[in-house]
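Below is one such record:
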Amino acid sequence: MNNKEEIVLGYLEPSENIQNTEDELPSYANGLPQFLECEDKFESIKCSQCGNPMKMLLQIYAPLNNKHASFREIYVFLCLNEQCSKHNCSIRVFRMQSSQKPQLFQSKNKDYIISPQSKQFIIDTEIISAKENNNEFQVAEELLPTNLEDEDKDVDLKNVKFDNENKIYENYLKNTEEKEDIEELDGLEKDQQNNIDGCFLIYQHFLTQYQNHVVRYCFDSLSKPLWFSDKKQPQVESKCPYCKKNKIFEFQINNSILTYFPELYNLEWGALYIYSCPQSCAVGGQILIEETVYAHSDEQEFISPNLKVDPDTKLVTIKQDSNKSNKQKQQIQQQQQIQQKIDEKDDEDDW
């Protein structure tokens, strides 16, 4: 699952019983956690702000080639307390691992269930190759608004794998920084052009092309996140407290997951980005090991306590934007434009 030549996409599929599946160790959402050790051996997952039990958003089976982590589970927890959502403690991510095939212990704490009235979901997976990923970034790049003078400038994507997005983002930002005005873009007013978010367009393109997948997984030192927005992208400097190596991006959870559960409708993050120890260190005597998570949005951002970011990045900012509805309309228009261009391109290919 950590092959750098591929990306694993995860989709939520309804399931009557997540234990009665073909997968011996399934990945799922809206269920009781299945731990690799009896939960009597460790404390329950609680919000460090309010002290209440947290809700498990999803559990992902993510084994590695390392012998000590050949069986490995990742758990993502949320606190739904409205006041806590403004603090760093509202999201926590843990891993649990074993060198031998483990016995699973289903939690008895029903407070962990995020939405008792909703269905349970298995996370079905699709693998896309580096070539497919590159092709989609090339398509997405063509959808970005650029200056007419720069139309003949192309990004060289040869021999580029999962850092394509960085090159595209850099090219987009360079173009917009060099020129104060962006030439007219069909379907957008001039006052909207100044607020166009290139990263959001690329992000939205991938969610459209891959049917609103909720998870994008690629655990490799070369992999980069699919950022939700141009704004407030952190320079991650989080280190594993045990081996002292820099943590690397492992996977992200897209905001498409928020639409599945009514309890999450009030959350406004665009995506969650999880960074993990590259060796998935085995820590003697410690069963649950906490990793780093960053919540990204153009409206708010908050990070886990063990993540350092660029000094210019504000850690906790919840701002009420009077133009929020206008921004949402712009995003909808941008999404419609993307879909229209994709449809036009498909029609041309059919001919």
Helices lie at 130-143, 164-178, 190-193, 198-209, 324-350. The first helix runs from residue 130 to 143. Residues 147-165, 178-191, 300-325 have pLDDT under 50 and may be disordered.
